[in-house]
Design brief:
Chain lengths: ~170, ~170
DNA sequence: TCGAATAGTTCCACAGTCGAAAGAGTAGGA
DNA sequence: TCCTACTCTTTCGACTGTGGAACTATTCGA
């Protein structure tokens, strides 16, 4: 997605109302784009390192962050915006590599419950640990107050991005 | 990539030195993961909307944000971590859809220079405009001082993520 | 009880990636 | 100046991920 360097970005960053033209806002938007791009490239690189496709990594993320809530193929399909066959194929790959197990659903015999294995947790630890190590000084050098501002902003930005994605469906 | 909900994340967020265990830091890391995930999903959704693969969108981003520097297939290949044939195929797709043009390189006849068309700028404007509209109130509600803190943090976080990606190559 | 709907999997066609190879061009050293 | 090694891009072919259609098993409500 183009950042503020490109023509259309600057021309259309304020489609309905006047956008925020403060230089701090421009810099923040550019920084968000750069961070999003680096995150995507890190995902792709770790995927190559672990022989996992991007979809597989995202699937693991959903399974591993579901808490006590059982994860079914249906739920994964919705969370990842994948078709049913693609979700099945992804689970085939993760199962073959020993990252997940399909278990019978406790009260719906059409379905299965997907659980992550210890191997998956090891891989996740390695991935998160690597970026966590590099991120530690970035976090440590900020005060609690600054981190709270940053966190709140990113939460709001995530919601806004999700709304923009929903806008695509309603305008198509 | 697993966020803090998962076991390995918490267990390994401090691989060498003690990580930042302040609740504000935990919240910030989680917010970064959520924002990165939403950004990736927005990219995928707009890609589907415009019949453009994720690689194509990233390619356009590189072409459109290159300023005066000529973009060659070689440079695109490096920026996107794609093989030469994959870069060629991507340019084929973008050219066929009228988003880019391949022009003769001014002083290296082996190469070409890739330029974005007005059509590409229109698409970029639409994509950025949509998310820009949703992001506008998020930016407008922050002071210049807050935005400066946020931007600096995300720039540092992007560098840290890039370093983590480089770490993959050296430890593999 | 039965029919409609749901859940997941399989089959198959399409599309994106990369290794190998080929052709054209460049650069540097003898 | 010329030749060799290297570079750049594209093409070919094999592999892999996605999604539509179809199938099977199961669930649920009339």
């Amino acid at each position: 997605m183009p950042d503020h360097h490109s023509r259309p970005a600057e021309a259309t960053a304020r489609p309905h109302s006047h956008g925020d033209r403060r230089p701090e806002a421009v810099r923040a938007v550019r920084a968000m784009a750069a961070f999003a791009t680096e995150s995507e490239m890190y995902l792709a690189a770790t995927g190559r390192d672990e022989a996992l496709h991007r979809t597989d990594l995202n699937g693991l993320r959903v399974v591993m962050s579901s808490g006590d809530e059982p994860v079914t193929p249906r739920r994964l399909s919705q969370a990842l915006q994948l078709s049913a066959p693609a979700t099945s194929a992804m689970l085939d790959r993760l199962e073959r590599l020993g990252h997940v197990e399909r278990r019978p659903h406790p009260h719906d015999r059409r379905s299965v419950v997907v659980v992550a294995t210890d191997h998956a947790h090891t891989v996740g630890a390695s991935m998160f640990g690597r970026v966590g190590a590099r991120m530690a000084p970035v976090l440590a050098s900020r005060s609690a107050g600054e981190l709270a501002v940053i966190a709140q902003f990113l939460e709001d930005a995530a919601v806004a991005t999700g709304s923009a994605r929903a806008d695509i469906r309603t305008t198509s």
